[in-house]
């Protein structure tokens, strides 16, 4: 009994010694007995990305180990050599892993962004074929031009004439949603028009699901969301209801496309049709997962990139001036007037605009972080040990704020075998929209001096939207 009391009295001293030692000697995530790195996470839950920038900036190799309770470890890195090792050199050693997949499976199923091995490879191969065709590029150009002239510009002109504030992030999300549905599934939800009530309902459910899914990764104790899901309470109940709406919309697309596919002479006229033609991948459930995955890629990524770009541009009028100069020179060279269609060759001449968009993507990448698992003990190029079944994560957001010169320093579109297959399509859409908007409108962002609050969903969104005031450019 006396020994027990003595040890109990020594416990606070022991814990103080451990805490103090960690605080003074470890530049990375502070870790404590039993609870791991949770105190730091709890303190910085409202700013996890900027917190990670601070942590990794003071680490000699821009790498640290985050510890969860029960000694669960996640290596977090912004080291370009490590990222190249993970994404390319030892790609097979770092799959998504069942733990990561389980976090997203309710929402994304086993679509291309939430699968490994043969399942991932087959989806990648099928989608890559479609994205590498010139016919798709031409279709993207034609569709984007039509959407800009018939839907986007009229909506923006109405807002400008009314002199009212408009949430430009919401406009971009509606535009991108209509666009990806047309390109990938040959479906027009009409979200940016007056007849898109079903599409808007889906979008709201999709956004809710994305936010709640993202919070699973940020939970202080990783299994709490599983308990709430089992009991169908709190955020997990809301998530389940949102996913029902998301699945219904995707299932309707799949069902209608299967019917149309059976009647059509051209069996592979869009991305979804190509998957339907593949007997190994045309189960209704998998097709639904594929639909949801490509909506995520086509809607959220593009709208995120555009929203952050216009906020950054509002802080740098000299950049806007140079973009307008470049557009004017291109029009003089091609003999086109404002309102005339920009072709693919015209977009290739927009070098300064391309650079400005790329710089915006560096600072605010639509997919700010990615996580994998490790299937065997290994050592990263910087000497960091990664154990079997450990998690490993890199952040394009953090890497964009580090000082380094390496091809893998800027993985906004990822790299290696999982590199984004829609990169060219994304630049086509973004450059077309920015050029068309800037030539027609002055975009004023009230309160631009204060950075908008980040909403860390599956993608990097602006919390509460980005409200702007538009003026017809004279």
UniProtKB/TrEMBL annotation:
Could you say which cofactors this protein requires? heme
Gene3D superfamilies, sorted: Cytochrome P450
Q: Specify the signal sequence span.
A: 1-25
**Record keywords, A-Z:** Heme, Iron, Metal-binding, Monooxygenase, Oxidoreductase, Signal
Query: Where does this protein have coiled-coil stretches?
Result: none
- Which Pfam families does the annotation name? p450 (PF00067)
The biological process GO terms on file are: lipid metabolic process
Return the similarity comment: Belongs to the cytochrome P450 family.
Write down what this protein is called.
Cytochrome p450
Native species of this protein? Arabis alpina
């Amino acid at each position: 009994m006396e020994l027990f009391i003595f040890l109990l009295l020594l416990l606070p001293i022991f814990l103080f010694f451990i805490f103090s030692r960690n605080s003074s000697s470890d530049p990375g995530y502070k870790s404590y007995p039993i609870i791991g790195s949770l105190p730091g996470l709890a303190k910085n839950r409202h700013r996890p990305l900027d917190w990670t920038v601070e942590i990794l900036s003071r680490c000699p190799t821009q790498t640290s180990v985050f510890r969860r309770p029960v000694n669960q470890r996640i290596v977090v890195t912004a080291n370009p050599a490590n990222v190249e090792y993970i994404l390319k050199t030892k790609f097979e050693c770092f799959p998504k892993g069942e733990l990561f997949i389980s976090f997203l499976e309710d929402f994304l199923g086993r679509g291309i962004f939430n699968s490994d091995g043969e399942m991932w490879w087959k989806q990648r191969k099928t989608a890559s074929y479609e994205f590498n065709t010139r016919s798709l590029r031409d279709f993207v150009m034609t569709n984007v031009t039509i959407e800009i002239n018939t839907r986007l510009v009229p909506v923006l002109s109405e807002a400008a004439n009314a002199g009212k504030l408009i949430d430009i992030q919401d406009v971009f999300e509606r535009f991108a949603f209509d666009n990806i549905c047309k390109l990938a599934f040959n479906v027009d939800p009409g979200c940016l028009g007056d007849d898109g009530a079903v599409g808007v309902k889906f979008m709201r459910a999709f956004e809710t699901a994305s936010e709640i899914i993202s919070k699973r990764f940020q939970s202080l104790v990783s299994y709490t969301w599983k308990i709430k899901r089992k009991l169908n309470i709190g955020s997990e109940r809301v998530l389940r209801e949102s996913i029902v709406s998301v699945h219904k919309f995707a299932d309707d697309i799949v069902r209608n496309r299967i019917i149309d596919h059976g009647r059509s002479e051209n069996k592979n006229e869009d991305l979804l049709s190509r998957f339907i033609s593949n007997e190994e991948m045309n189960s209704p459930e998998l097709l639904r997962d594929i639909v949801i995955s490509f909506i995520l890629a086509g809607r959220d990524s593009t709208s995120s990139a555009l929203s952050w770009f216009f906020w950054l541009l509002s802080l740098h009028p000299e950049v806007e001036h140079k973009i307008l100069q470049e557009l004017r020179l291109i029009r003089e060279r091609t003999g086109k007037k404002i309102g005339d269609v920009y072709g693919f060759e015209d977009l290739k001449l927009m070098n300064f605009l391309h650079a400005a968009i790329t710089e915006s993507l560096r600072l605010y990448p639509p997919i700010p972080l990615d996580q994998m698992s490790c299937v065997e003990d290994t050592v990263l190029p910087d000497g960091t040990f990664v154990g079997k079944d450990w998690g490993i994560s890199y952040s394009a957001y953090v890497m964009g704020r580090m000082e380094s010169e390496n091809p893998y320093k800027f993985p906004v579109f990822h790299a290696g075998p999982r590199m984004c297959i829609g990169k060219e399509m994304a630049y086509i859409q973004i450059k077309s929209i920015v050029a068309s908007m800037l030539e027609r409108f002055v975009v004023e962002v009230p309160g631009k001096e204060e950075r908008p609050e980040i909403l860390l969903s599956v993608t990097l969104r602006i919390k509460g939207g980005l409200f702007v005031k538009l003026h017809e450019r004279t």
